[in-house]
């Protein structure tokens, strides 16, 4: 007997995407609806491929529902699967733990949610499958849940569903930790894991242990292709598994190497090449792109001083190419000539640069400057004081960063006057 099933996780349905309004020109509706459309794509794939069942390994929701429409949308999609004869096995994760969700709706008969108090086993005689799982009772579960999962049921394909950080993953809380050896020792055929948003195969065979990643990136820290894993079973064994894309909006970092760029036009041409390559892999999806302009470049001073000009040229390029939104531009270039070399030239400019460099190392002077900026700090509007690029004149590191900008400004104007 041959069949397939789908393993998905970390859907975060109706994730609120806080702070999106601060991005100028952001495609707000497309981003807000992205998790729903991606979930529809998941259900469409299950029906199209006539899969035996769907496994959801936690974080179906992104916290308590704002209203019942989130739950009703989920029910509507489960009803579609019910009509297609497809069962669904799901557990709760840290974002949709039992203690977080205050609103409830009766689930259709094809949906089986596992207990949050102890591991349970669901047997499907039609497909000769035994599914084992346990959800999160609260947001922070630091106990090793896997150790109490039952031994395999002989004569069945055994699947374990677990929301876990496994051995620990950067950027993810250490929830329900366990080792790969521990999972292997249960002698299951497949472990359907959730919690980690980056696709990762921890063990290829006997058993396959897989994080499918989330089905839709929600911000710039979740870049690249997002989707689910479709697993193929033959004669009671895992034959193969593969990734299937589901995302409708793709977040990407676009690295633009400006090391060979003499002018702004050169930088834009390199940006065009990199952006067109990203668009080719996006398969028609809307791209949300953060540009990183990097490298030791002759155009460094122009790029840093004329940042608004750079940003708007990149936005214009995105409009020209189409289906691209510029989320942010980070200029990370450096000078071709080091500051030490410039200081050794014994010119008036070198004297100014040496003074600025000495200020960075003088804590007393930095404290005096912070005191001078106190009134400005208090007067700044909230949006300028907060966020990744906010002005915080209560920290000396802010002054040091601004002094670097002053250096770039001086060198830019000298080069412009000299016709360099």
TrEMBL record:
Q: Outline the extent of the Calcineurin-like phosphoesterase domain.
A: 4-197
- List the keywords (alphabetical): Exonuclease, Hydrolase, Nuclease
Q: Does the keyword Hydrolase apply?
A: yes
Which InterPro entries is this protein grouped with?
A: Calcineurin-like_PHP (IPR004843), DNA_Repair-Maintenance_Comp (IPR050535), Metallo-depent_PP-like (IPR029052), Mre11_N (IPR041796), Pesterase_YhaO (IPR014576)
Which Gene3D superfamilies does its entry note?
A: 3.60.21.10
Among the GO molecular function terms of this UniProt record, one is:
exonuclease activity
Q: Does the keyword Metal-binding apply?
A: no
Please indicate which superkingdom the organism of origin belongs to: Bacteria
Pfam families, alphabetized: Metallophos
Show the PANTHER family listed in the entry: COMPONENT OF ATP-DEPENDENT DSDNA EXONUCLEASE, PHOSPHOESTERASE
- The protein's name is DNA repair exonuclease family protein YhaO
Q: Which organism is it from?
A: Gracilibacillus boraciitolerans JCM 21714
């Amino acid at each position: 007997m041959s069949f397939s099933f789908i393993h998905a996780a970390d859907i975060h349905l109706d994730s609120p995407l806080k702070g999106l309004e601060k991005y100028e020109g952001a495609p707000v509706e497309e981003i807000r609806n992205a998790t729903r459309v991606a979930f529809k794509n998941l259900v469409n794939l299950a029906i199209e491929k006539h899969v035996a069942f769907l496994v959801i390994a936690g974080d179906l929701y992104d916290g308590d529902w704002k209203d019942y429409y989130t739950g009703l949308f989920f029910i509507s999609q489960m009803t579609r699967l019910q009509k297609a004869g497809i069962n669904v096995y799901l557990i709760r994760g840290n974002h949709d733990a039992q203690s977080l969700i205050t609103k409830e709706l009766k689930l259709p008969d094809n949906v089986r949610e596992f207990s949050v108090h102890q591991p349970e086993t669901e047997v499907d005689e039609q497909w000769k499958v035994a599914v084992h799982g346990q959800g999160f009772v609260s947001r922070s579960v630091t106990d090793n849940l896997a150790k109490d999962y039952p031994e395999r049921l002989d004569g069945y394909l055994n699947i374990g569903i677990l929301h876990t950080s496994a051995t620990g993953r950067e950027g993810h809380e250490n929830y329900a930790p366990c080792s790969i050896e521990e999972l292997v020792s249960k002698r299951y055929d497949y472990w359907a894991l959730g919690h980690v948003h980056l696709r990762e195969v921890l063990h290829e065979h006997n058993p396959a242990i897989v994080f499918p990643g989330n089905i839709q990136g929600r911000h710039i820290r979740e870049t690249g292709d997002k989707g689910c894993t479709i697993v193929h079973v033959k004669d009671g064994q895992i034959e193969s598994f593969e990734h299937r894309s589901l995302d409708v909006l793709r977040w990407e970092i676009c690295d633009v190497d400006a090391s060979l760029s003499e002018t702004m036009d050169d930088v834009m041409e390199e940006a065009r090449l990199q952006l067109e390559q990203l668009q080719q892999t996006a398969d028609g999806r809307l791209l949300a792109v953060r540009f990183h302009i990097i490298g030791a470049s002759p155009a460094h001073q122009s790029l840093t001083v004329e940042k608004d000009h750079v940003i708007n040229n990149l936005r214009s390029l995105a409009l020209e190419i189409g289906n691209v939104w510029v989320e942010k531009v980070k200029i990370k270039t450096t000078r071709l000539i080091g500051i030490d070399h410039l200081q050794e030239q014994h010119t008036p400019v070198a004297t100014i640069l040496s003074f600025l460099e000495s200020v960075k190392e003088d804590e007393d002077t930095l404290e005096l400057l912070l005191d001078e900026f106190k009134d400005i700090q208090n007067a700044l509007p909230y949006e300028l004081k907060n966020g990744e690029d906010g002005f915080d004149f209560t920290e000396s590191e802010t002054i040091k960063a601004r002094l670097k900008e002053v250096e770039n400004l001086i060198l830019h104007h000298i080069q412009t006057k000299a016709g360099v």
